[in-house]
Design a protein that fits this description.
The complex is a heterodimer. Chain A is an alpha+beta fold. Chain A is built from seven helices and seven strands. In chain A, a hairpin with a 2-residue loop joins β4 and β5. Helix content of chain B is about 25%, strand content about 35%. Chain B is built from ten helices and 29 strands. Classes of the chains: A alpha+beta, B alpha+beta.
């Protein structure tokens, strides 16, 4: 009886968590749709929007070889450097973030149930012990996946070629340096219509929000 | 004979008479008349000018001055004749080369005791040299005959004149009025212009004079003149009737002899003797134009617009925006063009302080004159705007008010509204374009870029948010709740010390009951002793062999006597043949139960 209530509670939480609050129902993201959209941008000669869409598709399906191949191809065509993934990154991103999240929950449940079972079944410790090890591995997979994707939460793609990065957040401010289309930058702060960005080379400057596309757009936001 | 002697005597007297002024001249050699000229008087940095020291007598060594920015070098010395007013005069010439290192106006002190200081202007390399008498262009323009402007008189002995040309009509306060200052010079007599002409009158502001004066050559009253014309604009600061004049500093070669001396010199027949009495030297002077009347009217108060900022003139306004079509969030530049003639320094516009659905930024202006004095031209105000929302939008017209002195009325100009098309932001437009991309999926991917893998078949799996699930707060509630539940379960199944103790106590008491019922005193006391000692050792956290009667007395108080008796009986039954007939098992069971459940 008690177990059924707990299952109902967890099921309700899962249903609630799966529906983001305030998100219009017609805005849906699909890895395949984003990939196809990126392809169309690439064919139209818009590498910035293409890379942005590939990055978003890769968030949903990081293991998809087509996405990674086309992303690397468009970046190379746009003369933008691509950082290859190492073995750990490939392993940690063997599953998509949604599955990784649920696997983490499963791992947490296995660890907890294993700890309880050891108390309850002291005569057969290898059964709950195996569950604890498996659960810990799943939790480690989820944490690694999250750690690898955390930088993506603040990453943006330059959408316009020769985008000026200015020394201050004003349209008439001096240009510190110029960004190429499809460059990846890290968003550090925002001020009105400008974002303070940092390049992989360590340069910082203010870029108009309209010239950037956030890989993970905020809920209800535009960038 | 007498006639021949008289001729000799007359000849000797004449010779002595000739020598007398020569002796006088030699005696005055140290303080001989001298003057200096510098040609050209305006040079560029790095160029050289030549200072010519002309002395009408014996000239000692010339001490070269030390002036920062100028380098002096004597390059030659010669003797010859200087022609003054057509009369040759013997003179000594010293040529000194001066090379400029810095830009500026330098005053070179007189190099001889009797000479005046001279000026040298050094300009930067990109500025022309308008004062060069020797024209650098090969073809010389013809000298046109002309007459003096009305009301203008020659000054400096007929060597120069100044003329101020201003409008004859009445002007308004603040109105920019173009003026011309003409300075006529006779080359050879006027050696240099020692500065820019200036305006006499404190009730007017004078714009910067044109950097390069217009230069023309004219024959005026039979003499060749070089006429330099500067352009500028003046503006009156208050109403009233004013008199204006212009003045210009010059250096002119002037005769230093009195009229009597010049008469004596003219009577000397021999040119050499005549030259002894012809003194000439450059002289600094300022010549002034004839005053001109100017009537200044106040601006009318009637009909003055609220946004009038003091602009007086004849202006036309227009506006544009670029680019005309842009994505939301990208800046556009709105421009207000004000063209015409007038006081552009008072032409100002803040453009838009606030505009619905637009983010506005402060405007900046730039002025491009179409003449040399800034009276005519175009002032452009630029204001960056950022559209907040996509769609077709209209930017309202811009307004500008000014007073037109030609119509003598205030005028209010307004530009037409501007239509702009704002597209969706590039970043936010991806979702809109997503639909189009999905439509493309059904069609074959013809024309695909080589190296680009083909499209995927559309799937029905989609998410509402790109943010990974484990970064969303609602999802984090699940593992949190799960962890709390598991923690509660762990707490529920953890070993309870009190419960374990009670179970053990019950087990021991049952064992003691069984021994009591059987009348087995040895087993009873042995079990009681073992249980009590282990209980005390665990409770007091000390080894069992260190539980002494003193320790028990200190911890148990009065009960320690019964416990000690029980332990003593246990020892006795262990090592002797103890008879259990007199054993009160209930008493000892009560004692043992009390001690096992006690907290002390």
């Amino acid at each position: 009886m008690r177990a059924s209530k707990v299952a109902i509670l967890i099921g309700g939480l899962a249903l609630w968590a799966g529906q983001a609050p305030g998100q219009p129902s017609q805005l849906r993201y699909s890895a395949d749709a984003l990939y196809n959209l990126a392809n169309s941008y690439a064919r139209a000669g818009k590498p910035g929007l293409a890379v942005l869409s590939y990055e978003r598709a890769a968030l949903l399906a990081p293991y998809d070889p087509d996405i990674n191949s086309n992303l690397a191809y468009v970046r190379a065509s746009a003369h933008v450097a691509t950082k290859p993934r190492n073995r750990f990154e490939r392993l940690a991103q063997a599953t998509d973030p949604t599955s990784a999240a649920w696997l983490g929950v499963l791992g947490l449940a296995l660890v907890g149930i294993g700890l309880v079972a050891i108390r309850a079944l002291p005569r057969f410790p290898w059964i709950p012990g195996g569950g604890i090890v498996l659960g810990a591995a799943l939790i480690a997979l989820t944490v690694s996946n999250a750690m690898l994707l955390w930088p993506k939460m603040h990453e943006a793609i330059v959408l316009v070629d020769q985008t000026p990065a200015r020394v201050s957040p004003a349209p008439m401010a001096d240009t510190a340096f110029v960004l190429r289309e499809a460059d990846s930058v890290t968003m550090r702060a925002g001020h009105e219509d400008f974002m303070l960005i940092r390049t992989s080379g360590g340069l910082s400057g203010w870029v108009a929000r309209a010239d950037l596309g956030a890989v993970v757009p905020p809920v209800g936001g535009e960038y | 004979m007498q006639t021949g002697s008289r001729r000799w005597i007359n000849a000797i007297i004449a010779f002595v008479g000739l020598l007398t002024p020569a002796e006088y001249t030699m005696a005055q050699a140290d303080d001989a008349l001298a003057y200096e000229t510098v040609v050209p008087s305006r040079i560029r940095i790095g160029e050289s000018a030549t200072i010519r020291v002309t002395s009408f007598g014996r000239l000692k060594d010339v001490a070269l001055p030390t002036i920062p920015g100028l380098v002096f070098e004597e390059i030659g010395r010669s003797q010859g004749l200087e022609f003054v007013n057509g009369t040759p005069i013997p003179a000594t010439f010293v040529l000194i080369r001066v090379t400029a290192q810095f830009a500026g106006v330098f005053t070179i002190p007189g190099l001889t005791p009797s000479s005046q200081s001279i000026g040298l202007e050094v300009v930067k390399g990109d500025e022309p040299n308008p004062y060069a008498w020797r024209r650098q262009i090969p073809a010389a323009p013809p000298v046109t005959p002309a007459s003096l402007p009305k009301g203008v008189q020659l000054q400096a002995g007929g060597a120069a004149f100044v003329h101020l040309a201003i409008p004859t009509r009445a002007v308004y306060v603040g109105e920019s009025v173009p003026v011309e200052i003409e300075v006529g010079l006779r080359p050879g007599i006027v050696t240099s212009v020692d500065g820019l002409p200036s305006l006499n009158g404190s009730d007017f502001t004078l714009n910067n004079l044109s950097k390069q004066p217009e230069r023309r050559e004219q024959a005026i009253e039979g003499s060749d003149f070089v006429v330099l014309t500067w352009h500028s604009a003046i503006a009156a600061v208050k109403p009233g009737d004013f008199s204006l004049s212009a003045e210009a500093p010059l250096t002119v070669k002037m005769s230093t002899l009195s009229a009597a001396d010049r008469a004596v010199a003219s009577r000397l027949a021999f040119p050499f003797l005549q030259s002894m009495y012809n003194g000439v030297a450059p002289k600094d002077m300022t010549i002034e134009s004839s005053p001109s009347k100017l009537n200044v009217l106040p601006l009318p108060m009637e009909g003055q617009p609220k946004d009038f900022g003091g602009a007086v003139g004849d202006f036309q306004v227009s506006s544009d925006i670029s680019p005309a079509s842009v994505a939301a969030g990208n800046p556009l530049t709105l421009r207000l063009h004000i063209r015409g003639a007038g006081n552009f320094d008072r032409v100002d516009s803040a453009m838009f302080d606030h505009l619905d659905h637009w983010k506005t930024y402060p405007a900046k202006s730039s002025f491009t004159p179409s003449d040399t004095v800034g009276y005519q031209g175009e002032k452009v105000f630029e204001q960056p705007l950022i559209a907040a929302q996509p769609g077709e939008q209209y930017i309202p017209g811009l307004e500008f008010s000014f007073f037109n002195p030609n119509t003598r009325h205030y005028e209010h100009a307004r530009t037409p509204p501007i239509k702009v098309t704002i597209a969706a932001s590039l970043a936010s437009g991806s979702l809109t374009a997503l639909t189009g991309a999905q439509d493309v999926n059904g069609a074959p991917t013809t024309g695909a870029i080589q190296g680009l893998r083909p499209d995927h078949a559309p799937s029905q799996i989609s998410v509402s948010e790109l943010k990974p699930l484990y970064f969303r707060a609602p999802f984090l509630a699940i593992p949190t709740a799960l962890a709390l539940i598991l923690a509660g379960s762990l707490l529920a199944v953890r070993p309870n010390a009190a419960r374990a103790t009670s179970k053990a106590t019950a087990r021991v008491l049952a064992q003691l009951d069984a021994a009591a019922r059987a009348g087995d005193s040895a087993s009873f006391f042995e079990a009681a002793r073992t249980t009590l000692v282990q209980t005390f050792a665990a409770r007091w956290q000390i080894p069992a062999d260190q539980i002494t009667p003193i320790e028990m007395r200190a911890r148990l108080g009065m009960a320690s006597e019964d416990v000690g008796l029980l332990l003593a009986l246990a020892e006795e039954t262990k090592y002797s043949d103890y008879q259990s007939g007199g054993t009160d098992f209930q008493r000892w069971l009560t004692l043992i139960r009390a001690q096992l459940t006690s907290e002390r």
